[in-house]
Amino acid sequence: xxxKFQEAHAVVDRLLLEQREYSPVELLLAEGRLSYSxxxxxxxxxxxxxxxxxxxxxxxxxxxxxxxxxxxxxLGLQAERRxxxxxxxxxxxxxxxxxxxxxxxxxxYRRAGTEVQLDLFMDNxxxxxxxxxxxxxxxxxxxDAFMLLDKLLxxxxxxxRLGVLEALCNATQRLAAPVGDCLAECEFMENYxxxxxxxxxxxxxxxxxxxxxxxxxxxxxxxxxxxxxxFLHASYALGCARDWAGVKVSILEDWxxxxxxxxRTRMAEAEYHQGERQQALAIWCxxxxxxxxxxxxxxxxxxxxxxxxxxxxxxDVEPELDIRYFPAWLLLExxxxxxxxxxxxxDHGPIRAYCALHELLASGSxxxxxxxxxxxxxxxxxxxxxxxxxRSINRC
Length: 396
Fold this sequence. Notes:
- The structure is a single chain.
- About 60% of the residues lie in helices and about 5% in strands.
- The protein is mainly alpha-helical and about 400 residues long.
- It has a domain at about 1-115.
- It has a three-stranded antiparallel sheet.
- Helix 6 runs parallel beside helix 8 and helix 7 runs antiparallel to helix 8.
- The longest helix is centred in the middle third of the chain and has 20 residues, at about 180-200.
- It starts with a helix and ends with a helix.
């Protein structure tokens, strides 16, 4: 349980870095306890309470949020209550979390001093209207955003945020039409709209941009993956839209997807975010053997795996352990690795080491003719890894 809390602390740290505040709902999304599609359905009033769509043991989820909240206070963050307001047809309605989560999810944490300081110049109708436009855009009320934009033009035509807000409002008109040129649309999203939304809308930019990414993904449906243009594949746009089930489907439509390390990386990320951690781990391990150059960058979604990789890189053994031996070393670090990859067809040093160590760990510590044979195979594959194995069983 302590390891789980450490993982929650790492998520809080990351959310503070990315969003400058910590929100319990964002932790649920980041940890795969809440899918974005269910979150969206809840915001749109299609799900009565958030609690009914969370994945995992309710008590463990509550404990996780409690520990994250305590950690946020230890960091000196200020706690404040916030309400979640519905989108679309549910606009204006305060949403429910249900049960114990009502208290845990209603408290947000931010750094002291990040609140807006109002003075005679800031506290005026122009800023109120600008904030209203942001709220309308992030809750997907484009018509309301345009009405408020017209009022801002009338009352404060020189407002410093006017140009950006007008650009974001105008972008929503694209949603009514199909994508004509996928390459141009992707460049528009990557180089213009996404950075602009991130700058003006902050953490809420994600909810604003999802509809644009879905529109692009629809246009890219059925397009084959081309290594020279990796963004022009539905899996990329669907990943940006947090539609992990859609990412998986779009990749599996290409029978040769395992020939492309980037598609394997996207598949592992999709599996990870859907809670299929062993499937993701299996893909990452096999990438270490098949695509060692690209494998390290693929670990990013799994913070525990990233941490293990950092420890692995610090090992001082001879001969040096490269990334191809990482899956074998992981067998000693993470028990779930033994269930993730059990059979490997290829035959080279790193895989021989993996298979020998896998069988050794499965057979227990009792010495036999077979275990002595396996130990010899492991030692021949990599003496340094064999020494690490001996130290691990001696500790037991």
